[in-house]
């Protein structure tokens, strides 16, 4: 996470907390237990209006899906409203992958590959990474299996399995700073929690930490590495991806734009468009990091 939709709802819930873009204020990110009726009640609107402005054909929702709460959308002729300097495109009602590819001189396949999606289903409000340069698209975008992991190593680098939903989310709160030790090399990175949704989204604390990450991954890549994180006096098994994505961040001046995926035991993707193989790589890496 197979509804074949785009790379996750990607923390759009943070927009209400961090005031990243005032133009996005009239949006709602679907969470567990939501229905069109409950969302309508929370936001003083109606199910019919939500279905109309979001072009919904049924009341089926997915976790991480972004719903517009009014029909004021940026003009399609003004690219600055939906194309950011970080090479992230905000999908508008009526957009198609082929249309977006043609507009930015790309191919549909390159967009699919960068965003790790299959098929053509997209929806308004999601963010699409564009392979046209910039920090978001640096390095490899393939998601091969984990390689070059040690058969054995220093046992002090390993942690225990902590269920993300029953325990991990309560330990890793937004803004928390912690250390992550790479299982293979023993190198340590300082990270900060950006958001705790279906998994943890993190940012390197400093330029030095970003440099350490890049030395571990060699190039920015989705392929995760097993790490042991130190939180609240506990050593916890985790998996850290090496691809900075979107321009949603809380820390500036760390030498990278965006944030990184980090999984604990039983973590899930934010939305329904991420490949099962990528999620499995994280689950495998968490097991490698466990004692």
TrEMBL record:
Gene3D superfamilies: LysM domain. This is LysM repeat protein. Pfam families: LysM. Residues 1-25 form the signal peptide. The keyword Thylakoid does not apply. PANTHER family: LYSM DOMAIN-CONTAINING GPI-ANCHORED PROTEIN 2, MEMBRANE-BOUND LYTIC MUREIN TRANSGLYCOSYLASE D. SUPFAM superfamilies: LysM domain. Keywords: Signal. Residues 26-69, 87-130 form the LysM domain. CDD domains: LysM (cd00118). It comes from the Bacteria.
